[in-house]
């Protein structure tokens, strides 16, 4: 759709973008213009007199930066968010306008940063979250605030960062900067807090991680006063005591799910170290206790991971490139960072498991897929060393080892290969040499005939193996022969169905082969014509063999 340019006086509360380089207009899409017109008409015709409707936070920031944004946070005064959403729905119905969805209400849920009930619905396909302007008061014990109705200025000042405190006033079609520095910080690419940094982080320590996430995502710098405040020892303690591990893990996972050739991920790792957050993120009490469950292991230290882990992650992500999936990128980043802990274990239900699994699953509460994948990638990286060179002919045993490694990590094998290339390089090895090693090894794998081995089926399936000329009985031997075919295929890329069948038949005819591929003599006698086979018949046969008569 064509865009509609809506002139904006970038003002309100002090703040102007004259000479700042930011757009002096908010450019609305046709859909946004139609939706905003509906909201304004509702406010004017159905709302209390003087009701002001504003778009808030991230949508305003992204529009001024020229970034797309597909959902809008709306704040209103003189009405609750739910009540205003209901007015919009009723107004659209009364004026025969289609495009309003059912209204869902997200009840107050502080653990999910929902401090007031929020009305969620779509208008003309645009997702809206509607709330009342508010102010927040914190206690020393919790990051969950006491929320009350507030003014636009109070709402702006209670937000995490100045760049997120901007409003777009639908009534006046102007950008409002009530903190007075949001527009300037947006122009300078700077992360700052509306209130004093220490006060902001004491109220909600999670905002330290959010500072990292926004800086990495937007390519902004974190203000030095934020860095200094975050490095105070009590801040890391507050992060552990006031913020749930689920919330910490969610923020970290968002940061390490970025694209752009891994640049955002590397920047996030750099900021973890700069803000002194490494131990609070990766070494919480749960991980330290798990590590202690296995005796004789070296103590965990942040220096195990940083700063060298940043370089390992940077190299691995650069090798994978922008085409890597988000899962592969974050798995490679975690594996590169945590590789010094790859040999450590912990006890879970009386069995040893990789400690890295506990770091990710227990410490950060990440999904099990990533918690399982990262240790598997590390193990695969070790198994791939030394890396094969392009055109190198490997012995059958080494091919088998590589094939089994690919089978273990499946389509994620490039991440393991990239990590292997990084881990095999000494500190003085150049990035060019690491890339050359990775490129040659990847070329070898691509032409090895082993890619996709995790989807292979046996040439001779179980049903055919049970039929002549193989006649293999159902049981363990059947599974062994199926696995054997996959092993042969890994060892010999030229193996086809006909060659596999001949090899199976040759094994059958070799010494000991008949016994291994044919039913045992005991089973054959039981199934021979004229032989009793039922349990009762076998009992009677035993009686007859002793000279007795069957009853």
Sheet with most strands: strand arrangement? 5-6-7-4-3-10-11
How far apart are the termini?
Answer: 93 Å
Helix content: 40-55%
Structural class by SSE content: alpha+beta
Low-confidence stretches: 1-21, 510-551
* Oligomer description: single chain
What overall geometry do the principal axes of the alpha carbons give?
elongated
Q: How many DSSP helices?
A: 26
Let me know the largest β-sheet: 7 strands, mixed
- Mean pLDDT rating: 86
Number of strands: 15
Estimate what percentage of residues fall within beta strands. 5-15%
Radius of gyration: 33 Å
Describe the protein.
- The chain is of the alpha+beta class and 551 residues long.
- 49% of the residues lie in helices and 11% in strands.
- The chain contains 26 helices and 15 strands.
- It has a 7-stranded mixed sheet. A two-stranded antiparallel sheet has the order 1-2. Strands 8-9 form a two-stranded antiparallel sheet.
- Helix 7 (206-218) runs antiparallel to helix 11 (263-274) and helix 14 (308-320) packs across helix 19 (413-423).
- The radius of gyration is 33 Å and the shape is elongated.
- The relative contact order is 0.06.
- Mean pLDDT is 86; it is low at 1-21 and 510-551.
Brief write-up:
The chain is of the alpha+beta class and 551 residues long. The protein has 26 helices and 15 strands. The longest helix has 17 residues, at 368-384.
Topology:
Elements lengths: L2 E5 L17 E5 H16 L7 E4 L1 H7 L6 E6 L4 H14 L9 E3 L11 E6 L2 E7 L1 E4 L8 E4 L2 H6 L9 E3 L4 E3 L5 H7 L1 E2 L5 H7 L2 H13 L2 E2 L1 H7 L2 H10 L2 H11 L7 H12 L3 H5 L2 H8 L15 H13 L5 H13 L6 E4 L2 E4 H9 L4 H17 L11 H14 L3 H11 L7 H16 L15 H4 L10 H16 L5 H13 L3 H5 L3 H7 L7 H11 L6
Parallel strand pairs: 4-7, 12-13
Antiparallel strand pairs: 1-2, 3-4, 3-10, 5-6, 6-7, 8-9, 10-11, 14-15
Helix pairs in contact: 1-3, 7-10, 7-11, 11-14, 13-16, 14-15, 14-19, 15-17, 15-19, 16-17, 17-18, 17-19, 18-22, 19-20
């Amino acid at each position: 759709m064509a865009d509609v340019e809506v002139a904006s006086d970038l003002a309100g509360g002090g703040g102007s973008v004259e000479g700042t380089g930011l757009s002096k207009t908010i450019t609305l899409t046709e859909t946004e213009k139609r939706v905003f017109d509906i909201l304004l008409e509702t406010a004017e015709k159905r709302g209390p007199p003087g009701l002001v409707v504003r778009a808030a936070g991230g949508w305003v920031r992204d529009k001024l930066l020229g970034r797309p944004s597909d959902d809008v946070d709306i704040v209103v005064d003189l009405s609750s968010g739910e009540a205003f959403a209901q007015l919009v729905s009723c107004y659209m119905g009364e004026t025969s306008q289609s495009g309003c969805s059912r209204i869902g209400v997200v009840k107050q849920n502080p653990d999910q940063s929902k401090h007031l009930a929020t009305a969620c619905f779509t208008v003309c396909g645009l997702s809206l979250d509607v709330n009342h302007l508010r102010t927040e008061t914190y206690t020393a014990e919790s990051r969950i605030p006491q929320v009350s109705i507030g003014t636009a200025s109070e709402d702006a000042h209670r937000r995490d960062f100045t760049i997120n405190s901007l409003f777009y006033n639908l009534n006046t079609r102007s950008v409002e900067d009530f903190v007075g520095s949001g527009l300037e910080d947006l122009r300078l690419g700077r992360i700052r807090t509306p209130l004093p940094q220490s006060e902001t982080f004491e109220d909600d320590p999670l905002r330290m991680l959010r500072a990292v996430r926004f800086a990495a995502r937007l390519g902004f710098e974190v203000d030095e006063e934020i860095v200094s405040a975050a490095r105070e020892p009590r801040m890391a303690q507050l992060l552990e005591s006031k913020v749930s591990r689920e919330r910490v893990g969610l923020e970290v996972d968002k940061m390490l799910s970025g694209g752009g050739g891994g640049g955002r991920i590397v920047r996030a790792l750099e900021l973890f170290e700069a803000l002194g957050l490494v131990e609070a993120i990766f070494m919480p009490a749960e991980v330290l206790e798990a590590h202690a469950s296995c005796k004789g292991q070296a103590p965990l230290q942040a220096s195990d991971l940083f700063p060298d882990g940043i370089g390992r992650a940077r190299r691995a992500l650069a090798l994978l490139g922008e085409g890597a999936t988000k899962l592969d990128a974050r798995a490679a980043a975690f594996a590169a960072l945590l590789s010094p802990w790859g040999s450590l274990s912990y006890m879970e239900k009386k069995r040893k498991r990789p400690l890295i699994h506990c770091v990710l699953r227990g410490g950060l509460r990440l999904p099990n897929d990533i918690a399982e994948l990262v240790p598997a990638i590390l193990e695969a990286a070790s198994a791939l060393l030394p890396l094969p060179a392009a055109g190198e002919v490997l012995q059958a045993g080494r091919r088998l080892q590589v094939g089994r490694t690919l089978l273990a990590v499946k389509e994620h094998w490039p991440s393991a290969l990239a990590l292997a290339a990084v881990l095999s390089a000494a500190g003085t090895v150049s990035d060019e040499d690491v890339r050359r090693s990775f490129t040659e090894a990847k070329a070898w794998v691509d032409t090895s005939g082993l890619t996709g081995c995790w989807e292979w089926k046996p040439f001779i399936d179980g049903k055919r193996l049970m039929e002549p000329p193989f006649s293999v009985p159902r049981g363990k031997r059947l599974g062994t022969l199926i696995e054997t075919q996959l092993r042969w295929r890994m060892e010999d890329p030229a193996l086809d169905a006909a060659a596999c069948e001949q090899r199976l038949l040759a094994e059958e005819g070799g010494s000991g082969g008949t016994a291994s591929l044919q039913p045992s003599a005991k089973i054959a006698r039981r199934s021979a014509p004229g032989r009793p086979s039922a349990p009762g018949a076998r009992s009677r046969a035993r009686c007859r063999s002793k000279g007795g008569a069957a009853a």
